[in-house]
Specification:
The chain has about 240 residues and is of the alpha+beta class. It has a four-stranded mixed beta sheet, with helices on one face. Strands 6-9-8-7 form a four-stranded antiparallel beta sheet, with helices on one face. α4 runs antiparallel to α5. The protein starts with 6 loop residues before the first strand and ends in a 10-residue tail after the last helix.
């Protein structure tokens, strides 16, 4: 019998610098009334863009898997704001994240996951005592130079936040209440698989899924061009 490894799809979109929300507002047709209200409440233009691009990415990918028009895909939220797919005929899980000019989406047919993307250029070492346990801080400080220290800092940061999103609680789950593996790019502990990678210079992504067995995940990572996404021309890889 052939064992099929669980598949995790990870898509990332780099938003061009200087893009205006008015340039992509034709895709507001994919938002429901609640999402349009959320979009309108953003006072900063780049937040509107990230929100709309994230919804386009998730709805187009999920719609293609389910053979449903993206505009007919709808989401619900738990009390902490995590999104879930409504009325799916198949088990599908997804998670979104965005940071300065990048949006990412992870999809799986196996279990809940969390994903986080961060821009890795800023020195934020002063917050470590508030989010990292002593062993984690020691590991960051032991790095050979500032670039390695930044990489270590954001590996921990993205892994912590991805776990908080995977359990569906966000920062309601205190980051000091748990620790995570931090040496390998792919790792697991007693609860989760971790995969951390650099999609392009200056950014880091971590995706976390629950540990269902010792069978390792298969990760498929793809960049999506914004113009193709907005035009609805992206061919997403099948999960099944």
């Amino acid at each position: 019998m052939v064992t099929v490894r669980p598949k995790m799809l990870i898509y990332w979109v780099k938003i061009p610098n200087g893009l205006l929300s008015t340039e992509i507002q034709d895709r507001l047709d994919l938002l429901d009334a609640e999402e349009r209200a959320t979009y309108s409440r953003y006072k900063v233009d780049f937040k509107k863009i990230e929100f709309l691009v994230g919804r386009c990415l998730a709805k187009m990918a999920l719609g293609q898997f389910l053979h449903v028009q993206p505009g007919n895909i709808s989401f619900s939220k738990n009390e902490y704001g995590k999104l879930f797919l409504k009325n799916s005929p198949k088990p599908l899980y997804f998670n979104l994240s965005h940071t300065d000019e990048m949006v990412v989406c992870a999809l799986s047919a196996n279990d809940e996951m969390g994903i986080d993307v961060e821009k890795t250029l800023d020195d934020r070492f002063e917050v470590m005592k508030h989010v990292y346990v002593p062993d984690e801080i020691e590991w960051v400080n032991a790095q050979r130079d500032k670039n390695a220290k930044l990489h270590a800092f954001y590996k921990l940061w993205t892994r912590k936040e991805a776990v908080m999103k995977a359990v569906g609680k966000g920062f309601s789950l205190p980051p000091l209440s748990f620790t995570i593996p931090f040496d390998e790019e792919r790792a697991h502990d007693d609860e989760f698989y971790f995969y951390t990678f650099v999609p392009m210079t200056g950014y880091m992504i971590t995706v976390v899924t629950r540990l269902l067995s010792e069978q390792s995940q298969t990760y498929v990572v793809r960049e999506v061009q914004l113009a193709e996404l907005l035009a609805g021309r992206v061919e997403f890889i099948s999960l099944f």
